[in-house]
């Protein structure tokens, strides 16, 4: 694997996704997936004859930019999908159940963990070049498990194997039923599983800033790890994969754009695919990414794990995508049919003022609604749009066939346009 290093300027501070070597001195605004190693943890050289989990490297990795190249809306941070346990995984395989031993001292996090932890699993992927691990959430008693696409991407290609260890310590072989890179989700099926504890999902649309949030997963391969915090933000637009001056709002499969839940509950490498639950222990999101501080920035470190800025895919989106994958092997998403770049403020080029339409696809929902090149979308429904990434996230958070109202600036005029969204897979 080739190591890629990038810096991202914005919001008066530099951020970067975190390779283990120093950053280049020249800012590189384009993010490219894939880099080995995490923090100071060793990544042994791959040996094909070694045991399946004897050598571990990070797999299916990508960087996410919070916002677009022009800062605004989501701010200008960089977050990374990171999944690697500590080298040598002896302790990682040890199951540890979460129980309430002393009800008198139990907290909200105690109760939430006791309810949800039996439904969270550790996912191991082994290929000819190495191995790594992440987390997952049990969907059904007969063995369907939801995780991130980037956790199992290499195993899904047929070049490796996937195993899953449940909370009670049982290890299963697993197959990848289907993946959706655009939402960074994948569904596994455990071989011979029965009577698993399926997770209970809450309505993620009801999540509020300040609500209790508990993250459960296998950071650094440490299964059944529980951390707690609050919901820091909802509807946070984050994007991963190649980004440039324009972004397609619904195609561009190489770019994952999430309408994410943000939390300060500690999320670290290996938490990806695990559960973010509410105070009742019901799943509200699938943990996916963390923000990291760039090296070379005053106060920053060469590498960092959790800094209190983590992101999860909303549970409602995750459930819909998972059910479609189980039924058909693929998932659909809403499609507007434009490519857009971020419109910059005249006085400050670092401030976005909307998503400026660069192209309109023939026969698309956008064309039927009368959108034109040069139009600037400033809101989807009641949701403000200041960057192209926010437009992408807002559209993908909707369902195919749904009618939405766009606020559009055309020259000096503002108007509203009703659009019935199309469908793409």
TrEMBL record:
Database matches in SMART domains: PDZ
Disordered as annotated region, ranges: 1-51
Protein name: Trypsin-like peptidase domain-containing protein
Sequence intervals crossing the membrane: 61-82
Residues annotated as domain PDZ: 325-412
Domain of life: Bacteria
Organism the protein comes from: Blastococcus carthaginiensis
Keyword Transcription applies: no
Keyword annotations: Hydrolase, Membrane, Protease, Transmembrane, Transmembrane helix
Comp. bias regions, Low complexity: 28-51
Coiled-coil parts of chain: none
This protein's record includes keyword Nucleus: no
């Amino acid at each position: 694997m080739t190591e890629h290093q990038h810096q991202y300027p914005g919001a008066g501070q530099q951020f970067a996704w975190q390779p283990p070597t120093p950053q280049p001195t020249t800012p590189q605004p384009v993010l490219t997936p894939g880099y080995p190693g995490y923090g100071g943890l060793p990544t042994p050289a791959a040996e094909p004859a070694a045991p399946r989990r004897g050598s571990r490297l990070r797999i299916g990795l990508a960087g996410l930019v919070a916002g677009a190249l022009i800062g605004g809306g989501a701010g200008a941070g960089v977050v990374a999908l990171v999944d690697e346990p500590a080298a040598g995984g002896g302790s990682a395989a040890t199951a540890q159940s979460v129980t309430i031993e002393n009800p008198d001292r139990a907290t909200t996090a105690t109760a939430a963990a006791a309810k949800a932890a039996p439904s969270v699993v550790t996912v191991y992927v082994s290929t000819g070049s190495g191995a790594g691990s992440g987390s997952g959430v049990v969907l059904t008693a007969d063995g369907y498990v939801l995780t991130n696409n980037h956790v199992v991407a290499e195993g899904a290609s047929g070049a490796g194997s996937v195993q899953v260890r449940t909370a009670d310590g049982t290890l299963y072989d697993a197959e990848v039923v289907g993946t959706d890179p655009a939402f960074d989700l994948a569904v596994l099926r455990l071989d011979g599983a029965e009577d698993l504890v399926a997770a209970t999902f809450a309505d993620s649309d009801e999540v509020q800033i300040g609500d209790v949030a508990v993250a459960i997963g296998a950071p650094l391969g440490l299964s059944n790890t529980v951390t707690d915090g609050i919901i820091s933000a909802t509807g946070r637009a984050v994007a991963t994969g190649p980004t440039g001056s324009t972004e397609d709002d619904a195609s561009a499969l190489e770019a994952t754009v999430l309408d994410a839940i943000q939390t300060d509950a500690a999320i670290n490498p290996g938490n990806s695919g695990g559960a973010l639950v509410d105070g009742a222990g019901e799943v509200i999101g699938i943990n996916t990414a963390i923000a990291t501080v760039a090296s070379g920035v005053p106060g920053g470190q060469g590498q960092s794990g959790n800094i209190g800025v983590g992101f999860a895919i909303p549970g409602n989106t995750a459930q819909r995508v998972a059910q479609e994958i189980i039924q058909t092997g693929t998932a659909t998403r809403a499609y507007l049919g434009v490519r857009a770049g971020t419109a910059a403020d005249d006085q400050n080029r670092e401030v976005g003022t909307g998503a400026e339409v660069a192209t309109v696809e023939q026969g698309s929902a956008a064309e039927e609604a009368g959108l034109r090149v040069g139009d600037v979308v400033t809101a989807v429904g009641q949701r403000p749009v200041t960057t192209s990434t926010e437009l992408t996230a807002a559209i993908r958070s909707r369902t195919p066939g749904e009618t939405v109202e766009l606020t559009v600036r055309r020259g000096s005029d503002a108007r509203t346009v009703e659009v019935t969204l199309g469908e793409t897979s």
